[in-house]
Amino acid sequence: MTETRRITDVATLKAMGHPLRVRLYGDLYMRGTATASQLAEGLDDGTAVSLVSYHLRKLAEHGLIEEAPREDGGDGRERWWRPAQESLRIDSADFRDSPEGAAAHTALARVIYEQRREHYLRFLEQRSGWSEEWQDASDASDFLVRATAAELKELTAELHAVVKRYQDKGRAAEAAGDGEGRETAAIHLYGFPFRP
């Protein structure tokens, strides 16, 4: 598994841009490994396993996911899948010279945003079910920064480095058997210019 894959071709960008594929990739990323049946159960909307399998194969065709070693010791009838990389990087700069690529990038960004929005709305609906400690640890902030384009890029890189440090810390703790009290926390960062 590679650490980070940068998507630079329009075909892969389009393959990733389907809402169900983004959801399946995200669910697979969260679980580490899963079968189509497990992912279909997690959707809670009656999506057929055959449709999930189809979309998983499309993600695999573009190298976004790969077959994983079996976890259940079963008879091999069902495939186990995992992300083919630890993270994906998709930069608008790689697609700005192609109208088709720019449109595909914007479409994928919208799908990803909508799914992040849904995650946060789900948290809001379920907040009372979390302990006070977790409720107090959650955050919803926004900031306005007067910056140059170079400064915004620098700020983004610094924020990514901080998040990566905590990802590494959590992985190391769990690898050492210290998973007590750990939950998956979603960190959504957006940095963009706008004029009021």
UniProtKB/TrEMBL annotation:
Classification via SMART domains: HTH_ARSR (SM00418)
Recorded GO MF terms: DNA-binding transcription factor activity
Pfam families: HTH_20
Residue ranges annotated for the HTH arsR-type domain, each copy included: 11-97
SUPFAM superfamilies per the UniProt record, alphabetical: Winged helix' DNA-binding domain
Superkingdom per UniProt: Bacteria
Listed name of the protein: Helix-turn-helix domain-containing protein
